[in-house]
Amino acid sequence: MSFLLFVFDVFLYPIIYIFPAYAANGAPVVFGGGAPLDFGAKLRNRRVFGSNKTIKGAVSGIIAGAAVGLIEYPFLHYMLPIAVLLAIGAIFGDLIGSFIKRQLGMKPGKGFPIMDQYGFFAVALLFAFSLGHMPGVYGMLFLIVLTGLLHVATNRGAYALHLKSVPW
Fold first, then answer.
1. Beta bridge partners of 42
2. Is residue 92 part of a domain?
């Protein structure tokens, strides 16, 4: 395998592949707000998702991920449906984490290691898996490390910009 092919397979393609999920996960921080997705509903006397998971946030996340897919489409024609599934999966993954946190009685904004960093990522990949074109083993290992590092960096940046009330 040539060096350039190795770099593409292990680093560039995985970033291109997962970027719709990253966009979907980050968009609600910027474009969210408004009515809560759970409309205040409770399960076992606890909010289903909480006030921070909003309709506008979920919709903006899916739109952001699909928009990334549209940008990638001229270069990788198969990426648009994958991008949509990655975006929907990322939103669902984040909602699953929020649901678990609320049902465990954790307050909004409280850190939940592993789930906070990788919940959106894992569910996004599960949603898109059926369409194939997934990065290889080394590309996936790279994405696992990258996702953890980016989670820390972007959350600290959002906190510094006053987009989030906690730095995690």
1. 47
2. yes
Give the orientation angle of helix 13-31 with respect to helix 79-103, to 10 degrees: 50
Give strand pairing partners of 54: 36
pTM, to two decimals: 0.93
Structure tokens at 152: 């820390």
Q: Provide the domain count of the chain.
A: 1
Q: Within 13 A of 147's CA, how many CA atoms are on the CB side? A: 27
With H, G, I as helix, E, B as strand and everything else as coil, classify residue 51: coil
| Residue 127 covered by a domain | yes
Who's near 140: CB < 8 A, 6+ residues apart?
Answer: 14, 134
**Considering the chain, what percentage of its residues have pLDDT values greater than 70?**
99
Q: What is the residue whose two structure tokens read 């897919």?
A: 69
Q: What are phi and psi of 105, to 5 degrees?
A: 85, 15
Please indicate, yes or no, if residue 76 is contained in any of the structural domains.
yes
Q: Is residue 128 part of a domain?
A: yes
